[in-house]
TrEMBL record:
<dbReference type="GO" id="GO:0008270">
    <property type="term" value="F:zinc ion binding"/>
</dbReference>
<feature type="region of interest" description="Disordered">
    <location>
        <begin position="88"/>
        <end position="125"/>
    </location>
</feature>
<dbReference type="GO" id="GO:0003676">
    <property type="term" value="F:nucleic acid binding"/>
</dbReference>
<dbReference type="InterPro" id="IPR036875">
    <property type="entry name" value="Znf_CCHC_sf"/>
</dbReference>
<protein>
    <submittedName>
        <fullName>Putative transcription factor interactor and regulator CCHC(Zn) family</fullName>
    </submittedName>
</protein>
<feature type="compositionally biased region" description="Polar residues">
    <location>
        <begin position="111"/>
        <end position="125"/>
    </location>
</feature>
């Protein structure tokens, strides 16, 4: 990102030397136009803001460097989250002894309906903690999705 910004600054300086300076707002607009698709939401937000609060080239430089860090962190997080899933999907599962052990084996005779403690003891993948709402303290959703988020009359019971 720094190289891209330095390139644009070089162009602006060259035009200024030729007595055709580029305004900050034009430089910001050109910069936003040349960003990759990863920065689309960022560019849209800045274009919207520019109508009310103009952005200088120096501010844009700092904002773009911050956005670059956020994008890189998001990519790293996506890699970390997808790696276990892809490893799990690519790992062949051996036949389970609880299902007969061999292919084609069918259990004949009496079967027991007792399944023991079925609290997920067979699951070797650790479960994630369930999300808890900060408004109603119920599990399964977060505050942004809470039904009572905009209900000013809601008073959670303590």
């Amino acid at each position: 990102m720094t190289a891209y910004l330095q390139l644009l600054k070089g162009y602006a300086d060259s035009l200024a030397a030729l007595r055709a300076p580029v305004s900050d707002s034009d430089l910001v607009a050109y910069c936003l136009q040349g960003l990759s698709d990863e920065y689309a939401a960022f560019a849209t937000a800045l274009r919207t803001r520019m109508g009310v609060f103009p952005v200088t080239a120096a501010e844009l430089h700092n904002l773009l460097l911050s956005e670059e860090i956020i994008i890189e962190d998001r990519k790293q997080l996506n890699l970390e989250l997808s790696a276990p899933a892809s490893a799990f999907a690519a790992t062949p599962t051996p036949p389970s002894s609880s299902h007969g052990g061999t292919r084609g084996f069918q259990h004949r005779g009496r079967t027991s309906s007792y399944r023991g403690n079925s609290r997920g003891s067979f699951n070797s993948v650790p479960s994630r903690p369930r999300i808890q709402c900060q408004i109603c303290e119920r599990q399964g959703h977060c505050a942004i999705d809470c039904y009572n988020r905009m209900n000013h009359a809601y008073n959670k019971a303590y």
